[in-house]
Amino acid sequence: MTDTLDRPAPSESQDLASPGLVDTERVADLVGQLLAAIGEDPGREGLSDTPARVAAWWRSFLSPQPSATPTCFTEQHLSGQLVVIGGMSVWSLCEHHLLPMNLDVAVGYVPDGEVMGLSKFGRIAQQYAGRLQVQERFTRQVADEIAVVLGSNGVAVAVRGTHLCMSARGVRMEAARTTTVLAGGRFESDPVLSQQFLTLATDRWRAA
Ligand SMILES: Nc1nc2c(ncn2[C@@H]2O[C@H](COP(=O)(O)OP(=O)(O)OP(=O)(O)O)[C@@H](O)[C@H]2O)c(=O)[nH]1
Ligand SMILES: [Zn+2]
């Protein structure tokens, strides 16, 4: 799927799955209730600490990642060089089934006077993975954020998703993978650049 980046700056009001505060005590209590509702004894050995563990996991999963402030460096004379950062694997949670999805993210851009710190692409991906998601929204949010930081919509994002809701339950298609691609600016108008990005971004997916 290819989409274009003709969009305004990201708006948290459009972000339905923005992380909120986690009431860990309440979550633990509800997990205890869930265990009882599925016929388990929440007090038995092996389960007694489970509600607290699960609540701690929710808190950690939904906690904002440490400083996603993107560091950029001035770098002149790059001669239209394509930069592709791939293999950024993050875990998110499908908002329909509350099951994990693995999102393998690749980002491409052509620096114009400034380069962004490489790790910051991964931090932005982690930031948007740490919430209830759908893959298409995640793809757009990552692209939007990077475009805002770079001050340019010349950004391409490709995501390959493995959804447990599709492989471990439901249709049970273990090999199913979902690929989303969002390309803007130069990537939209230059088919050669776009193809170069896709070749590099999907390299490891073909090898897998
Ligand atoms: N577009 C999109 N769909 C998703 C994503 N994650 C899960 N889904 C889909 O969300 C849909 C929810 O469909 P429902 O019919 O309401 O739920 P369901 O009965 O559990 O559906 P099945 O998964 O087909 O058993 C399913 O088709 C999922 O595959 C995602 O990231 N993007
Ligand atoms: Zn799902």
- CATH secondary-structure class of the largest domain: Alpha Beta
Overall pLDDT metric = 90
Could you say what the CATH architecture of the largest domain is?
A: 2-Layer Sandwich
The gross shape turns out to be: elongated
Number of helices: 8
Low-confidence stretches: 1-17
Number of strands: 8
Give the SSE string: EHHEEEEHEHEHEHHH
Small molecules bound in the structure, each named once: guanosine-5'-triphosphate, zinc ion
Task: Going across the biggest sheet, name each strand in turn.
Answer: 1-8-7-4-3-6
Helical fraction: 25-40%
Domain GTP cyclohydrolase I: 30-200
Family: Belongs to the GTP cyclohydrolase I family.
Binding site for Zn(2+): 94, 97, 165
Subunit structure: Homopolymer.
Main traits of this protein?
single chain; 208 residues; alpha/beta; GTP Cyclohydrolase I, domain 2; GTP Cyclohydrolase I, Chain A, domain 1; 2 domains; 6-stranded mixed β-sheet; two-stranded antiparallel ribbon; 8 helices; 8 strands; disordered N terminus; binds guanosine-5'-triphosphate; binds zinc ion; GTP cyclohydrolase 1
